[in-house]
Design brief:
The complex is a heterodimer of chains A (255) and B (512). With 255 residues, chain A is of the alpha/beta class. Chain A has a domain at 7-83 and 158-254: Rossmann fold, CATH 3.40.50.300. Chain A contains 10 helices and 10 strands. In chain A, strand 7, helix 7 and strand 8 form a beta-alpha-beta unit. The longest helix of chain A is centred in the C-terminal third of the chain and has 22 residues, at 233-254. In chain B, strand 1 (249-254), helix 11 (257-272) and strand 2 form a beta-alpha-beta unit. The chains are: A alpha/beta (255), B alpha/beta (512).
Chain lengths: 255, 512
């Protein structure tokens, strides 16, 4: 029941410290159902750490993370993670399993294995030939591998998709195509999506809402159009300046 | 070449026992190492401690590790009862399994440490439990590396299992130790070739399994496992299938020629009377005595002086008859063993020198040796310089040699002729004393006790009247001249006889 306006995911005073480094400093935030949120920031700004508090790859020192009305710390770990689609930069396909086995792993370990037709449907969802299902991961290109990673994340039919630098290792053409595909899936499947990226262009083009993190804090929370219009403060504008400058150069070249 | 082939084909029993021992030790090593490796991958402290322990074990010489399990198991009898075996399969299994631990553990720990962190993050991200992650991801990915460790362990274990012979476990070490004893190099070579061949075969099969894991070819690793299982099963059938093991009489022998021959002599007599027998060769003195006391072996030949000084810890030196009677009484009261009687000859320790050395230095008795000893090297078997007899004779005469050197008994005589030792602690029933023209120095102070060969029966064997009846004709049947001839027939360089043949000829000579 993802009605627009209902809160899918919220953070309340979330803090995390690694040794002396304060990775996340008291983040409070609510994400409505169906929103595509981009978390942008430099390396070490705490964006990945914040994301991982949702599927509890990181447990916060203080604060609460609430997903679909339930505090994540109170949900059994395996069930929590199976209810969340998770895609990350190094993909992490299991090298000893076929593409089909990789995609079906979540439902399989939950005791509800999916059939060949469902695997084919998931492959088509990410623009892959169903004939690839018997291949091993090392026979695929980088882009194909990340598409399989996305299909695997969607296999358990999650309502929320977490992506940690999902396209970081891909070439620009593949990156663009896969980004468009994910945005399309986000809309078609009614997902709530949180994507961590250091690339402001990607954030502006894909997300409904862009959060800028710096030193563990959220320093800007704007729509892409507001950011392009100059809002969001100094740190955000410094990041927006890069694509703006690139766009100007391209415009000059085409004249 | 034919003799070598015959020797190798005659090793069926030893091969089967060797396969079973090695396979059991590796299996036990795997059963301990793998759970430990899983634990170690979750707890760095466990990883450090277990690897340090396994490395420490590896620094103990295999022979010593095997020997150490005898006293360890003996003391564990307080916990597990008198039925706990202290010799043979169990201690060999435990020592070899400990030895197999390191390569398996190290490879398993390394494999887990080197797993792609992305794969682990994915396993957690999709919601795998601890066991699912282990079963579905970590185990299959670590399998080729673990298998490589098992391969190394298998080759080590098969080699080290030859040492099981010294603690009474039948193995391919039997021909090696027996051959070493009598300089029968064909026997040594046969044991080495069989053991090396077995190691190569195991390495190839386990390598096939490893390749199957690495290339994810199910047929390959299943086939390799099937071949290994068939090999072990065949060994089990050979060992236990046809004959019943229980009811066999176990005859023990210490590690020198006379003992091997006498064990065969006893065995042949018993077999003629319808008993099934097997041999435990190459036992140390103390091990043989404890083994008979505990019933691990049924019969063996010991020497009065050895029991008197080593087991009874006596320092006095009474007349022959009195010593014999006291020993028989003492064994009955303490160990429950029965001293059936004396075989009729003595195999004493005696200092032997070359005839030429004796003439040049004017040596006739140990007293004559005192002045020249500081310029001389004395050789003895590996036990000798630890035995109370040595301390007794050394202190009685005030002997101080320039150097004390240990030799395997068979090499002791070569050491004398090659000049590496000028005096050796020889055995007076040894055929090489006459053959090498050696002089045994008198012992006017009576520091060396008597060493009458005596037939010892374990407490259970002593109650077997049929067996006792079969053995009684051996009493007083063998004089020292016969024993020397028999010993020399297996020790000499040319026309060596096997132990069985030497025992048959000895029986004939003794009119048995």
């Amino acid at each position: 029941m993802s009605e627009s306006g209902e809160t899918a995911l919220s953070f309340e005073g979330v803090r995390k410290q690694f040794g002396n480094v304060r990775a996340v400093e008291s983040v409070t935030l609510a994400i409505p159902s169906g929103q595509f949120v981009a978390l942008v920031g430099a390396s070490g700004s705490g964006k990945s750490t914040l994301l991982k508090t949702v599927n509890r790859l990181v447990d916060p020192d203080a604060g609460h993370v609430v997903l679909q009305g339930r505090e994540v710390a109170s949900v059994p770990l395996a069930r929590l993670r199976r209810s969340i689609g998770y895609v990350f930069q190094s993909v992490g396909l299991f090298p000893h399993m076929t593409v089909a086995e990789n995609i079906g792993i979540g439902p399989r370990i939950a005791g509800e294995p999916i059939n060949r037709l469902q695997i084919s449907a998931l492959l088509e969802l990410v623009d892959l030939d169903p004939g690839l299902s018997t291949r091993m991961p090392d026979e695929l290109s980088g882009g194909q591998r990340q598409r399989v990673g996305v299909a695997r994340a969607l296999a358990s039919e999650p309502s929320i998709l977490l992506m940690d630098e999902p396209f970081g290792a891909l070439d620009p053409v593949t990156r663009d195509a896969l980004g468009e595909r994910v945005l399309d899936l986000h809309r078609r499947l009614g997902l709530t999506t949180v994507m961590v990226t250091h690339d402001m262009t990607e954030a502006l083009l894909l997300a409904d809402r862009v959060l800028v993190m710096e030193a563990g804090r959220i320093v800007a929370d704007e729509t892409p159009s507001a950011l392009v219009a100059g809002k969001g403060g100094e740190a955000a504008q410094a990041l927006v300046a890069v694509p703006r400058h690139q766009a100007q150069r391209l415009a000059e070249l085409s004249q | 070449m034919n003799a070598l082939l015959d020797a190798i084909t005659g090793l069926g029993d030893q091969l089967a026992a060797h396969v079973i021992l090695s396979a059991a030790a590796i299996a036990l090593g795997i059963a301990v190492a793998l759970p430990l490796a899983v634990w170690a991958s979750r707890a760095p402290a466990v990883s450090r401690a277990s690897l340090a322990f396994a490395s420490l074990v590896q620094t103990i010489p295999a022979l010593a590790l095997l020997a150490l399990f005898f006293p360890i198991l003996l003391s564990l009898r307080a916990v597990f009862g008198e039925g706990l075996p202290t010799l043979g399969f169990l201690p060999a299994l435990l020592a070899l399994a400990l030895y197999a631990l390191l390569p398996i553990l190290r490879n398993a720990v390394t494999a887990q440490a080197n797993l792609d962190p992305g794969v682990i993050e994915a396993a957690e991200g999709v919601g795998m439990s601890f066991w699912q992650r282990l079963r579905l991801v970590e185990a299959p990915l670590a399998a080729p590396y673990v298998m490589a460790g098992i391969r190394t362990a298998a080759v080590w274990t098969i080699g080290a299992a030859t040492l099981g012979t010294t603690i009474g476990q039948k193995s391919l070490g039997d021909p090696i130790f027996a051959g070493l004893q009598t300089q029968n190099w064909i026997l040594v070579l046969a044991g080495c070739l069989a053991s090396a061949g077995l190691a190569l075969l195991a390495d190839t099969l386990l390598g096939t399994i490893e390749r199957g894991f690495r290339e994810r070819r199910r047929g390959l690793w299943l086939g390799g496992m099937l071949a290994v299982a068939l090999g072990v099963a065949a060994a089990l059938v050979a060992q236990f299938g046809s004959e019943r093991d229980e009811g066999r009489i176990v005859i023990g022998a210490k590690g020198f020629s006379e003992q091997y021959i006498l064990a065969r002599l006893i065995g042949q007599r018993l077999e003629a009377e319808g008993f099934a027998v097997e041999y435990r060769d190459g036992l140390g003195s103390a091990v043989a005595h404890s083994a008979a006391a505990s019933g691990e072996i049924d019969i063996y030949v010991d020497y009065t002086g050895t029991i008197w000084t080593n087991q009874m810890k006596r320092k006095d030196n009474p007349p022959r008859e009195q010593m014999y009677r006291e020993i028989a009484r003492w064994e009955e009261a303490t160990s429950g063993m029965r001293v059936l009687g004396r075989l009729g000859f003595e195999n004493a320790y005696g200092f032997a020198v070359n005839a030429e050395t004796a003439r040049m230095a004017g040596l006739e008795s140990i007293e004559d040796l005192v002045d020249t000893a500081p310029q001389l090297t004395v050789g003895g078997d590996p036990e000798f310089f630890e035995r109370p007899e040595w301390f007794a004779v050394r202190d009685a005469y005030g002997l101080r040699f320039r150097e004390e050197r240990n030799f395997a008994p068979t090499f002791m005589y070569s050491a004398l002729s090659s000049g590496e030792a000028q005096v050796i602690a020889a055995y007076t029933s040894d055929g090489r004393i006459a053959a090498d023209n050696l002089v045994i120095l008198d012992d006017p102070r009576g520091a060396f006790p008597n060493y009458d060969a005596v037939l010892m029966l374990s407490p259970q064997a002593a109650r077997d009247t049929a067996m006792v009846a079969a053995l009684e004709p051996l009493i007083d049947a063998i004089d020292v001249q016969m024993m020397r001839e028999a010993n020399f027939s297996v020790d000499r360089e040319q026309d060596k006889l096997g132990f069985d043949e030497a025992a048959r000829r000895l029986a004939e000579k003794a009119g048995l």
